[in-house]
From TrEMBL:
<feature type="signal peptide">
    <location>
        <begin position="1"/>
        <end position="25"/>
    </location>
</feature>
<protein>
    <recommendedName>
        <fullName>WD40 repeat protein</fullName>
    </recommendedName>
</protein>
<keyword id="KW-0732">Signal</keyword>
<dbReference type="InterPro" id="IPR011042">
    <property type="entry name" value="6-blade_b-propeller_TolB-like"/>
</dbReference>
<dbReference type="Pfam" id="PF07676">
    <property type="entry name" value="PD40"/>
</dbReference>
<dbReference type="InterPro" id="IPR011659">
    <property type="entry name" value="WD40"/>
</dbReference>
Length: 282
């Protein structure tokens, strides 16, 4: 999947200013999400997800809104998913997508290369816990279909965040709901049509005892890039991990001895797929 420039080596800190009107915010919203960043409110903010043809991008942003209940309650931070179109070389036509009910949040969208599916995290009613990973089909006119929960093979009673699609079928995401190495760990699941495999932890070569948010693989360079706050004073930075293509088989192998998580999920063609919550009705 083609994306905008991924993440700077040391992700710069961005402090969110006051809210602006939607009309004034279009350019500002897009500029803030072109590259990954760090916010004092949002924590790590992933870059925009862009379709292969480079014409459509998806991103999320939080705004403070009145809660559903409590007239005198403080405003709550609610996240929305937006779509932008590239016209004459400029990103414009920013549209808020209705992928979850009002007063719930949806964030961290990632789109397949052909633009047909959008994965995102949401805390909408019906989730297994806090934030779950959902998927929605995108119609030819850009309208999202019904959001479908990916089910217990991916989601837990805790947070699942930062989904990212690699090579059309490999879903990476961060989870803190499983026994891992500490904080958010990176996992992967193969998604084929309307089925998916049980999630696999990517192992100690990629995960740490801190929060590990996202990974991007670069086969031509035989390396990947992990975004994590394992740095000094929990600084969010990009870390390089290496993996190579086997000389005997058309496979990717994590170079760290004993780390088989990434190798397994990328190479195993014998996984038994089972339907999940998002399986289409016949």
């Amino acid at each position: 999947m083609t994306r905008s420039t991924f993440y700077s080596l040391i992700v710069s800190v961005t402090i969110l200013a006051g809210q602006t009107t939607f009309a004034q915010a279009d350019e500002k919203m897009i500029n803030e999400t072109m590259d990954g960043s760090v916010s004092t409110i949002d924590g790590y903010v992933p870059s925009m997800s862009v379709t292969k043809d480079g014409k459509t991008a998806y991103f999320s942003k939080g705004t403070y809104e009145k809660p559903l209940y409590g007239v005198f309650s403080k405003k709550e931070l609610i996240y929305h998913v937006y779509r932008a179109e590239k016209v004459n070389g400029e990103w414009t036509n920013v549209t808020q997508l209705e992928v979850c009910p009002k007063h719930y949040s949806a964030k961290h969208p990632t789109v397949t290369a052909d633009g047909s599916r959008l994965f995102f995290a949401s805390n909408m009613k019906g989730s297994y816990g806090k934030y779950d990973i959902y998927v929605a089909d995108i119609a030819a006119d850009g309208t999202p279909g019904v959001s479908k929960n990916l089910g217990p093979k991916v989601n837990t009673k805790e947070d699942e965040l930062y989904p990212s699609i690699y090579n059309e079928t490999l879903l990476f995401f961060a989870s803190e709901g499983r026994d891992g190495y500490g904080g958010l760990d990176l996992y992967a699941s193969q998604v084929v049509k309307n089925t998916l495999t049980t999630s696999v932890n990517l192992g100690a070569h990629i995960n740490s005892n801190s929060d590990d948010y996202a990974i991007q693989l670069s086969p031509e360079k035989k390396m990947g890039f992990v975004v994590s706050n394992r740095g000094f004073n929990n600084t969010v930075s990009q870390y390089t991990v290496a993996y190579g293509r086997s000389s005997n088989r058309d496979q990717y192998n994590d170079v760290a001895d004993g780390d088989t998580g990434l190798q397994t999920v990328m190479n195993d063609d014998t996984n038994e797929y089972a339907g999940a919550s998002f399986q289409d009705e016949e």
